[in-house]
Design brief:
The structure is a single chain. The chain is mostly helical and 174 residues long. The protein has helices at 2-20, 48-161; strands at 167-168, 172-173. 76% of the residues lie in helices and 2% in strands. The chain has a two-stranded antiparallel ribbon with strand order 1-2. 0% of the residues are buried. The mean pLDDT is 83.
Length: 174
């Protein structure tokens, strides 16, 4: 359809250009010094063969101009398509990058929460360990205190009776 329109346009231009080229004027016998004199073109004096060659040259030049215009148009379209595609790719890349950065941040937050929970758990275990150690120390101190009091009471009892203990340090017999 576009090719037909171009052909029709070219034939119209050829017809218009044929009408524009002036024909040679017939020789006149008048000798008016103030009369308008037509200047003859160099191409027009050669006859129809030169005119046809000139028209063919014009048609050829017009065709070349149309081809060049089409080529420039196609190049511009290709550039626009490539620019649009590159823009799409860049926006896609930026969106994916933002998505991955958000995922990374979310994972980091989860890891921070897990780390805090694990630290809390270890602190609780450490506190429990310290509490247990304190309880064992207290029990040992209490038992030592009881044993000291018992040893003092037994020593007082043996002193009161005037007897010697039958076992020394629980190992030796007297």
């Amino acid at each position: 359809m576009a090719e037909e329109a171009k052909k029709v346009e070219v034939t119209k231009d050829i017809a218009e250009e044929k009408a524009v080229v002036p024909l040679p004027a017939p020789p006149s016998q008048h000798d008016d010094s103030k009369a308008i004199v037509l200047v003859k073109d160099a191409e027009a004096t050669g006859g129809s063969a030169e005119r046809d060659a000139y028209l063919a040259k014009i048609v050829s030049e017009k065709r070349l101009v149309l081809i060049n215009a089409w080529e420039e148009s196609e190049k511009a379209r290709a550039e626009n398509r490539a620019a649009k595609k590159l823009s799409y790719i860049t926006s896609w890349e930026n969106a994916k990058k933002a998505e991955m950065e958000a995922e990374l941040k979310r994972i980091e937050e989860q890891l921070e929460k897990k780390k805090a929970a694990y630290e809390e758990k270890l602190k609780n275990k450490l506190a429990l360990l310290h509490k247990t150690a304190e309880e064992k120390r207290a029990m040992t101190e209490a038992k030592r205190g009881e044993e000291l009091i018992m040893a003092e009471e037994l020593a007082a009892k043996y002193r009161a009776k005037g007897e010697a203990p039958t076992k020394l340090f629980g190992l030796l017999k007297a």
